[in-house]
Amino acid sequence: MAFVSRPHHLWKLRTRELALGGRTLIMGVLNVTPDSFSDGGKFFAREKAIAHALMLLEEGADIIDIGGESTRPGKRAPITAEAEQERVLGVIEGVLAAQPDAILSIDTYKAETARAAIAAGAEIVNDVSGFLWDAGMAAACAAAGCGVVLMHTRGRPAEWAVQPPLAADEVVPLVKGELAARAGAALAAGVARENIVLDPGFGFGKIGEENYPLLRHFDELRALGFPLLAGASRKSFLLKTLEARTGEEPGAKSRIHATIAAHTAAILAGASVIRVHDVRPAVEAAAIADAILGG
Q1: Which segments within the chain are labelled E, that is strand?
Q2: d(C-alpha 98, C-alpha 160), whole Å
Q3: Distances (CA, A) of 122 to 69, 70, 139, 228
Q4: How confident is the model over 286-294, as a mean pLDDT?
């Protein structure tokens, strides 16, 4: 069996660089929200959020991705930029006070929040809309010179349940084409090529089985010419597969096992970064996948 070797890149962040293409980097998820699908409310209190971030760093996370608004469909109306910042800025400041060398990412699609988080010390902006939902985001990131993750999203969360289904052979061409367009728009706005990582957006407008062609053909996304991030952690399409196989609702360990399987496949197909809730198992799985690749 042949696996995909990853080209080496230097991912330029706001004040530093990260080497991509050798060891897989682990981005730990920190949801400072009351309503995220996987851990809603668990780390909503500021001190709990800071403590959890420090634990993820201790377990081996290379990056902490801090988000203040859930994109879970059907829960509630979008929050304001001010409310989002109230949730995340103190956490960014608290983590950096305890660990000044920590690399923090802000998970937001709002330019105002991105600018505030960067001013507070964030190195990366992770935009689930790929700069589509706020016309000012590309310029904000270009001005900051920060790292960016451009994710593919098909429609808005409220639309996902009613969008026309995709055939298996439609998924990858759609994602490739639209990611290429988002990267092109970012470059045209002044974001440097070396700042950009692309994420195909598992679960974001791809419903259930529509995600498996994207995982099966993940290596084809390398043709876009940018480093790739995979974020399948605890996603519902994995859990539905387990439930169909076992007839039982997946427990916490099953969610971890399913996530490891998906991310290992993505690493072997070319992912340089994986975004995860459970850092220690991801570090161990990535170490084996990297050894297989010879990294």
Answers
A1: 9-12, 17-20, 25-31, 63-67, 104-107, 124-127, 147-151, 196-199, 229-230, 273-276
A2: 39
A3: 17, 19, 16, 20
A4: 96
Mean pLDDT is lowest, of 1-10, 26-35, 169-178, 185-194, for: 1-10
CA atoms of 106 and 24, how far apart (whole Å): 20
Task: Please tell us whether the domain made up of 9-293 is placed in CATH 3.20.20.20.
Answer: yes
> Which pLDDT value is given to residue 289?
97
Tokens 């076992």 sit on residue: 246
The per-residue pLDDT for range 216-261, each reduced to its tens digit, is 999 999 999 999 999 999 999 999 999 999 998 999 999 999 999 9
Contacts of 164 (CB under 8 A, 6+ apart): none
What is the pLDDT confidence band of residue 75, given thresholds at 50, 70 and 90?
low
* Residue 176 annotated in active site: no
Cβ atoms of 163 and 205 closer than 8 Å: yes
Residue 31: name the closest of 56, 62, 11, 13 by CA. Answer: 56
Q: How far apart are CA 192 and CA 235, in angstroms?
A: 31
Average pLDDT, the chain: 93
The active-site residue out of 235, 245, 253, 280 is: 235
Query: What average pLDDT score do residues 150-169 get?
Result: 92
Helix axes 111-120, 81-98, angle to 10 degrees: 20
In the chain, where the domains are located: 9-293
235 is catalytic: yes
Q: Which two tokens stand for residue 37?
A: 């699908």
